[in-house]
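Work Package 3 (structural annotation) set out to generate three-dimensional models for the target panel prioritized at the project kickoff. During this period the team completed the workflow that converts sequence records into discrete structure tokens, so that structures can be stored uniformly alongside our sequence database. As a representative example, we reproduce one entry of 77 residues exactly as it appears in the project archive.
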Amino acid sequence: MKTVQMTLDDDLVKEVDLLAKELNTTRSALTRAALRSAIKDIRTKRLEKKHRAGYERHPVTKEEFGVWHHEQAWGED
């Protein structure tokens, strides 16, 4: 693990400290978790954007998934 120095707004530090105390954790642990969560969200949004662009270039056709319709089981009739 590496120690880094960051500049944060005073009100943000207060909120982090309050939340860390409430969750019985440390400022560093809470910050690590928040950064991991933010990185995961950014990566997910990038993948969603990439998928959306792919479907815009190659839209789904009506027949594309229709071949599986007869395979669907909806329960007792």
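Helices lie at 10-22, 27-57.
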